Amino acid sequence: MDTNPQAGLHEETSFLSNLPKTEWKLAANTTLLHWKGFWLIPVIIKSAISVESQFNPLPSDILLASFPKAGTTWLKALATAILSHDSNPNNDSQTDQLQTQNPHELIPFLEMETFGENASRDINQIPSPRVFNTHLSYSILPESVKKSGCRIIYISRNPADTFVSSWHYYSKMFGTKIPLEEAFDEFCNGIIVGGPFVDHVLEYWRENGKENVLFVTYEELKEDPHKHVRRIAEFMGCSLSGDEIEQVVWQCSFERLSQLDVNKDEERVHWSGSKFNSFFRRGFVGDGKKLLSPEMMERIETLAKQRWEGSGLELKVFGA
C-alpha cells in the first residue's frame, strides 16, 4: 500500500493535463489552466486540492481574501497591527512587527506557504488566532472553511486600478514588455492568475452580509481609514480605543510602510520571487483613469456592469 502523500497528490491532480489551457503573455507566457471557472497556474490548483484535503480550519481563524494586487499587502499590515494592539494595549516600537518584517512575512499564504508541494510554513506553529491570506475564489474555498465559522475579510479594488497595479507588478516580476493594450485585453478576457477579476469579486460580494464575511474596498479605506479600520477590528473581535485606531492607521499607512528599510530592501525576496520593495509602488486611487484611454475605461466598466448586473454590486462601491 502506497503511503506517500505526494503519490496521492499526483493521483488527485492527474486530471490537470485535460483542463483547458492558455498562455498568459504578461507573465512571460506562463501556462494557465481553467479550473472551476478560474484561470490558475498548476501549482496553485495542486495546493488548493491539498488545502481541501488537509486543512482543518478553526472557528477562531481569520482568512484575508483578495484578488492579486487589490490591497492584499495593506490588509495584512492592518490585521497584524490590529491584533498586536488588541493583545498589547501599550503597544510601542518594541512590539511593532511591521518595523522589521514585511507584511507578507507575518501572515502566510494559505494555499502556497502552508500547503502544497513547496509548503514552507508549519501551520502548527502559527499562534491563535491564526491568520492566513488567500487568492482563491470563494467557490474554490473548501467547504470546511465555509462551515467552520472562521472569519473572512475580502478586500477589493476598482477594476481599472487593479489592472494597472497588476500590469506594473507582473511586468517587473517577469521582465516582460508587452504593450499595455495587450495586457489589458488579457485582463478583460480573464487571462490573469485568479481571473476573471469580475467573477472573483462577485463571488465574495454575494457572501457579504453573512455573519462571518466582511467585504471592504481599497477606496473606502483610503477615504476614511479610521472608520473602516475600526470596522475591520470589530469584525476581528478586537476592541481598540480611538488612540489605538489612530496608531494602526499610521503604522499601516503607505507613507510609513513604503519608507521602512525592510520594505525598501532590494535584496530580501518574497517566496514568490518578488523583492519586498515591489509591493509598494504608489498606493493611489485613480491610477486607471490616468493610464487607460477613455475607450479602455469604457470597456472595463461596461464589462463590470454587465457581469455584476442584478447583484447590487456597482462601480460606485469603488468610488467610480
Automatic annotation (TrEMBL):
Keywords: Transferase. Gene3D superfamilies: P-loop containing nucleotide triphosphate hydrolases. One of its GO terms (molecular function) is sulfotransferase activity. It holds the Pfam family Sulfotransfer_1. Its EC number is 2.8.2.-. The keyword Transferase applies. It comes from the Eukaryota. Residues 59-311 form the Sulfotransferase domain. It is an enzyme of class 2 (transferase). This is Sulfotransferase. Belongs to the sulfotransferase 1 family. SUPFAM superfamilies: P-loop containing nucleoside triphosphate hydrolases. The keyword Transferase applies.
